[in-house]
Amino acid sequence: MLGNRSSLSRFGGSLKTGLKDKLGILIGLIAMCVLLAIFTDSFATSRNIINVLRQMSVNAFLACGMTMVIILGGIDLSVGSVIAVSGCLCAGLITNNGLPSGLAILLAMGAGTLVGVFNGLVISRTTIPPFIVTLATMNIGRGFARVYTANKTIMVSDDLFGFIGTGYYGAIPAPVIYMIIAIAVVGCILAFTRFGRHIYAVGGNKQAAIYSGINAKNVTFTVYILAGLLASFAGIISASRTFSGQFNVGDGAEMDAIAAVILGGTSMTGGVGTLSGTVIGCFIIAVLNNGMNLLGIDSSWQYIVQGIVILIAVMIDFLKKRNQKF
Hints:
Blueprint: H1 2-21, H2 23-39, H3 46-71, H4 79-95, H5 101-125, H6 130-149, E1 154-155, H7 159-166, E2 168-169, E3 172-173, H8 174-192, H9 194-204, H10 206-211, H11 216-242, E4 244-245, H12 253-263, H13 275-294, H14 299-325
Antiparallel strand pairs: 1-4, 2-3
Helix pairs in contact: 2-13, 3-8, 3-11, 3-12, 3-13, 4-5, 4-6, 4-11, 5-6, 5-11, 7-11, 8-9, 9-11, 12-13, 12-14
């Protein structure tokens, strides 16, 4: 009982500190919402808010995995292509091969997870930088999706498959429920488990972590597997929302995930970050994209705005690190 109270006390203290650290981006998010509510008629409607949450769900899955990867001191550029691989493969197995949707979903998620297995195996067992490894698997995944679909969209007509991305549990969209579960699970891993502490330790100082008895190779391997698993389910959700497998889906999604993580205060150098900050970052990216669409901003300018947001987030992280040294 005393141990439970101590854990809750530590959690309460870390939550209070975390909210204080995230006060700046919270104010920015609130200000953005207020401005969009003033300048558009439809932003503050319940229908649009639900739409924002639904659109945010795919990025949230990627960002959960990316948070662990970046805290570890790595990067994963392949998660966007995993969306295409798992979504196209699932659609193809149902439509072209006649597999039951449940089995097709499991096989497609397994294929996406295998990308994470490969990334984790190479990165943990060699000195090849994660950027290079995941850049390679990103291109391989994109190529596979194009070859598998013959550069065509695979349409799907299946109730279970469609429900995952378009169904509702009461008044809440199914993808939002899945997103909440994923955030809760990853949040608990990082905050309450030994494995979570090992992720921070390896990201903060790998050599010191190894000397303290932590198996850094296994930690790295497992983190990349989890990132692949989360990305593969994001691919199922994305494909389900359109009832199709599209070879170009998820293009650039890894950038949105990285932006959300960095906006949330996770350091690119590793060892520092929280999932709560990442969730706020996901909200900012989702609201920003939704707001620009409502304002009728051209898609080309949207890329520019997103790039500026990422640059600002990285600069803030750089300045914060520099101030801590002096």
